[in-house]
Structure formats: C-alpha cells, structure tokens
Model the fold of this input.
Amino acid sequence: MMNFPSARILEINLADKTYDVKELAGEIYRKYPGGSALGMYLLLKNLKPGVDPLSPDNLLIFSVSPLTGMPISGQSRMTVTTKSPLTGTAGDSQVGGFIPVHVKGNGYDSIMFRGKAEKPIYVYIDGEKVEFKDAKNIWGKITGESEEIIKEELQEKNVEMSLIGPGGENLVRYANIMHQRSRANGRNGVGAVMGSKNLKALVVKKQKPQKPIDMEGFKTLTKDIKERIKANEVIVDTALNGTAGVADFHLEEGFLPSRNWTRGYLEKGDQIKGETITKTILKERDTCFACAIRCKGVVEIEGKVDPAYGGPEYETICTFGSYCDNTNLTDICYANQLCNMYGIDTISCGATIAFAMECFEKGILTKEDTDGIEINFGDGSVFEKLIPKIAYRKKGIGALLAEGSARAAEKIGKGSEEFVMACKKQEIPAHMPQMKPNLSVNYAVNPFGADHQSSEHDPALMAPKDSNDWIWSNMLADFESCDAYGVLDSNKAKFALETQKFYSMMDTLCLCQFAWGPAWQLYGPEELIAFCKYAIGWDASIKELQEIGERRINMMRYFNKREGFTRKEDVIPDRMFISIPDGPNAGTRIKKEDFEIALEAYYEMAGWDKKTGNPTEETLKRLGLEWALS
Amino acid sequence: MEVTINNKKIEVPEDITISELLKYLNLRKKSAVWINEKQLLLKEYDTYKLSENENVKILNIIGGG
Done:
C-alpha cells in the first residue's frame, strides 16, 4: 500500500492571535482526504454540540485536498466547513477560482479559525509566516474595494483572498465568503460566521502549484483535452453559455421554477436564457486554475453592470428571474453584482425576495412592513432597493429578509409559512423535483439543506445505454432505466444515495462537478482513479471513493443528530407535490406517498434508523466513525 | 412522411435517420430516443431510419448546473 500524504492543519486562534501547525497522519487523511470530509472531521473533533453558530466558539475551516493544484481541469476547489447559522446543521460550502491552489501551495490542507478577534482583522499567510493585520480600513467596505485596499496595504499583488462584505459583517444568515469578486463559498451563511469572528479576509501569497508524481501518466489524461471537450456536447454548451445554458433547457421543457415555484413555465423566458446572455451582454468567459472548460460568464451592461463582478449563474438567473417572475436581464445582472459586492448568497437572497413578493401579493406584507416599497412579482427594480437593506440589516424589511425566508415567515406568521421554499431553512436551488424526482429525496435528507450539487440528476437514468451518462453512473451501482419525468421509486432513492456518495467524495477531494462526475462530465469515475494514481500514487478504487463520500455524509448526519435534528426535519415543501400547471410538461408531478416510500428506501439503504433518520451505531462503526460516538 | 414525436404528429423527410431527426429538431445529439417504446442505443442513431407512422419519444438529457 502506498504512503498516503499526511495533512498539514494550520490552527489559528483569532482571540489571542496565535497559531500552530498540526499534522494528520496519512493513514487517517486517506479516510478524510481533504475538503468537506477533512473539515467535518475537524469540526466533529473540535466543536461541542449546542454552540451558537455566531458565537466565538464556532469554528471556521477552509480545506483543500491532496489533488488541489494539479495541472488538470476541475481541481481548484475549496470547502468551508462550520456550524451553519442558516440551517443550524453542519455547514458546508465550496468555491472555485484560484485561492485553493495557493492554500495548498503554501503547504496547508486545512486552515482552521477559532475564537473571535477583539477588533476586525485580516490574516495574511506566506508559507510558514502568519500575520494578523488590522482591518479597520476595510471593515464596512464592499468586496472589490476591500481587495484593492488589502493589496495596496500589503504592497503585494501576488495574493489571493477569501473575504466578506457588509453582508457577513452584519451577520446576514446567508452571507457568503467571496473570492475574486465573482466566486463564492455561497451557501449555509458561512460569511456570517466569518463576520462573527471579526475576520474580514483570509489572504494567501501565491505559490507554485504542486506537480503530479507521474507526469507521463498524468499527460494521458490531459493531452487530448480539446478533442475531449469537442466530443462532449454538454461541456461544449457549458463552455459556450456557462451554467446559464441550463435555463434554456429547463425553459424549453417547462421546468424552470417560476413565481415562487407555483409554475414551471415563464412567459418571455427567452429574455433571460443563456443563449440570450451570450448573444447580448457576455463580455468574456473566465475560468478557474488550469481548467479548460471556461464556464464562468462575465457580463457587462454599460452604465449599470460592472464586469468585475462576473455574471449570473443559472441559479441566480432563476432566483432573481423566474422565481420573481422577472424577465428583465439587467435587473438580474445588477442583483448578481450587488450580492457579490455585499457578499450575500444569490440563491437565498433571490428566493427570499420571491417569498416576500408572494407575501406582498397575498396582502400578508404591506407597504407599512416594507419601508414603503411595493414588492411585486415581475418587478426586478426592487432588487436594488432591497439588497442593500438586507446587507446592512436595516431595521424593517432589510433586517427581516436578512434572516432568510423560513425565519422571516416565523416572524410574519399569517400563513406565510406556506410560501417558504426551503429545506432545513436553506432556500431551494432551481431544479424541480417534478422533472428530477431524485432531488426530492436529496433535498430532504441532505445534511446541510437543499442542494442541487449533492447528487447526480435523474436524466442520467434516461440516457442511451451506450452513453457515458448511463455507463458511468452504473459504475456506482446497478440502476434501472427510466423513460419519463416524475418517476419516484426505490430505484430513484438508490440513485439519490449512490450518486450522493460520489458527489460527497468529490466535495472531499475538492473536484469540480462539471469536470468530474458520474454522468455527463468531462471525466468519469475510472479517469478519476487514474488521476489519483498519477497525481499522488494513490491506488484508489470506486469502492474506496464511494466509502469516503458515505463517511462524510454520515459524519454530517451524526453532527446534526448531536444538534437535535431528526427525521422530522427531512421534509420538502408541499408545493413540490403540485402538478406543473402549464407549459410543455403540464400535469407532471411527484406524489407525496411515492416520496415517503422513496425516503424509507433511502434510510434503509443508507443504514439509518427509519424512525429518527439518524445513522445507526452499526453504520457509524462500519465507516470507521466509532471515535465520534465517544 | 408523418411520424408521432412526443404525442404530436410531425412531417419529417423520408428515410430520415435519428441523428438527422435530432438535428432537424434542433435537439442534442445524445438525447434519449425511444421508437415504439424501445430505447435506441447511440450507435444506432446514424443508421436507424424512421418509417411512416412510427411513434417516437425524445427526452433531453439535462444534467445539473
């Protein structure tokens, strides 16, 4: 057996401005090999149950993996792990870009922050040197301006940073951590935790990326990259229209969540689809370190939208577009820019505004509650009025919506709970279970709330049997084929679970889910095994990779159990059981009874107690997690 | 000739292959295709020629994002 590399953990105590480096032995690191699993391992080991997520006792952990920085597409990702102030569960969020490479390049697999700084600071890391810098000049400033000031203060351009904006400083429950003004550890409110610690930024000096131990073997994966991309029409689409292109297909099929999820079809939806963006306002396509796909869209609208803040992804197009019944592309792009400037999650923010629009439509919120703003469906001009109020938690509608839709509904009452489209208080991303039924199970059981990148989507089970989609997904388990939308059964529950393990492993190895995956992606499971071997000499197998993913999910569920979560939180909004009322696939639905049966099947296959929804002791021991029980 | 595609009757050119049909309908090359309820393999898309009145079902394969 190879010697798996050990992990270096940089522990920083913000309260007394001290730090220490600890090593995690290779045989342990192999079980929790980076990213999300390493973060959860550290969180479970170091955080007591019941801690207030916004108190100094919470931890904030940035983790990369042994593969981060290798010269191949889709490896520059970093996970932030914490206890989420939005969900109260294990918190977990990924970012791409360039900082992951340089965290690894500085010699660290994980950087763990404890405590709270007495005054706002930022931390600068250059190899073994860790400096604590006064952030009084940047506290309160937007992300882009803060970046510039930090570079000027350090007199160093060769840095990358993860930082918060006013959203994080003001503890907006869905504040994010921004990188390069357009990439975000977006979900679970990780930016609020950073703000609660008075930590404005994590800054790292750029360093040389690591190299594979077998460069010749490695080149077999990269040498034909142009042909590989050309042969994959989904990736060609992604390179052309970015994730925004997903809107085109969902619109065409009538599964674009619209008007706060009451419909799947949006009139004039053509105005906000990916192809329209590409043809009208796209300035360029951007990329992450060493990635040939170039999926990131950068848009420019003269006098209104600054390309420095990137462009809207598919999710943002939906939350500020179709969720709000809005087809004004400029308003969507400007909302995206504002969220990136203030450091708040575009999914939760747009979805929370859509919730408020429905409350306003039904007379549950009035102009007296909204600082005089008419929050109407179809009116994107409200975004620029509301987003600053949210980011600064302005008394009134700003402070209310800064809590997210679920907590806002608890405060509003009057039946507004019915309009909350969230799981475990996290707003749901823009993929409808009526089209992709396995996501209903995933949204319900996912330990950190609804997430669209925690399992493969159902169309892989419809793919031709000689396609990569079918062949690769069936490397994980034997699935049955499916020939229609709306089918939810034990086969889909199995698909949800087995592909969730794979996606969980990818979030552990910090891999991008467009480049690596079990279906339509650039590289499949066998090539991932080759990647592991050529990069670090790791003789991995699909079984080992799946177990790594399963271990992470179970650590999270066990963390949640300690926090008092049970099966009763594994629910989805009733609105997900409605028939699609109009559009090309009108009438498509999933039945609540089928959902319940699939959920039971999932628990059974996962080795979780059906009554509590929590992992059994036997399952935890099977995964080598007996240490957590003590 | 007339065929039924996703429950709609559509006129298509004689002897059209599945690959040509997908291009004709502006759909992805690897969309899933069933002819009279039997799913085709991708490798059949260039050779299978539609006949009059055949019942075709096509589903777009759309992943995440």
